[in-house]
């Protein structure tokens, strides 16, 4: 089945009781059993819920995997993956990633004895060199948040397979419409479903998709034992979001491309981070593993003062200043003080995330309106160069 059809039909089965075409919101905590242990496959809603089951099936189908698992947030999904490990195990991860993932690794799991090596994953050699006998997991974001770096998923999978290491790819920025890491050799795909999967900025949720049954069972055991499950209403919202994922991503990519090129030629802009540019260092890899380049763009002004950055961040009218991304409406964000504030400044700067970087989540409004908005906001810095 083609992707466009999958987005509409994955996980959708008419309700056996009523024929309802949309999966009902099973707002229940428990299920009545006929006799002890005699039930319809549902015992207690932390372990199973039919709305969640429909969503998990849909997630698996659209990522091209066998099994999906939904979590109460993206970080809860990441948390479950790291809980596969034990003290002394080592993880190789990128040096540019969502600040909350870095915080989870460095402030929570480090004290439980898990060791994290942060490397520049745009060069596979850095990853290969970081492998030790204790390495159990490679954690990759591609494109990265917020610098839009690209890692070669097939290359990472080769390193992982050769060394008997798991590869988990955080596919949040691309979404399943643009990139399917399992087909490139990853063992686990992680999503902040809060973003493109939900698409409407009205839900917090996370997801994992897996092919291997034993690995799925381990992660399911963690999901039900630790309890970070999403409620049925949220599952319904993400199921609904998935139906329009394909067409939304087409428009995000279309608008993203227009805005990236507008920024690149703007006289007040110093640098634009977007993997669709032929001179982006990861462009050829991005082209080979992504269907299009999505709606995430970061940029820096030639005037690299906080004053100028603040003028743009506060000056847009259509782009709302907010954390998060992937919704239908455009957002503007200041990673250094917002989404990536938990990364020590020294680390951020070393890895190329400047104090004045501005990140855009380009929505699905009219591209010309969005460009006019950015143009007027950047214009507010004129005369301050
Ligand atoms: O917010 P939550 O659903 O828990 O997802 C965490 C997460 C994981 N991975 C990536 C790549 C992410 O971007 C996020 C969340 N990011 C933001 C809130 C943000 O504005 O960057």
Describe the structure.
This protein is of the alpha/beta class and 385 residues long. The chain folds into 2 domains: 3-243, Type I PLP-dependent aspartate aminotransferase-like (Major domain) (Aspartate Aminotransferase, domain 2); 245-378, Aspartate Aminotransferase, domain 1 (Alpha-Beta Complex), CATH 3.90.1150.10. Helices cover 36% and strands 15% of the residues. The chain contains 13 helices and 12 strands. A 7-stranded mixed sheet has the order 1-7-6-5-4-2-3, with helices on both faces. Helix 2 packs parallel to helix 8, helix 3 crosses helix 4 (99-109) and helix 11 packs antiparallel against helix 13 (367-379). The chain is globular, with a radius of gyration of 21 Å. The N and C termini lie far apart (54 Å). The model has no long low-confidence stretch (mean pLDDT 97). Bound molecules: ligand P1T. Ligand P1T is lined by residues 73-75, 98, 100-101, 141, 145, 170, 172-173, 192, 194, 204, 206, 323-325, 333, 339.
Summarize the model shown.
It is built from 13 helices and 12 strands. By secondary structure, it is of the alpha/beta class. It folds into 2 domains: 241 residues, Aspartate Aminotransferase, domain 2; 134 residues, Alpha-Beta Complex (Aspartate Aminotransferase, domain 1).
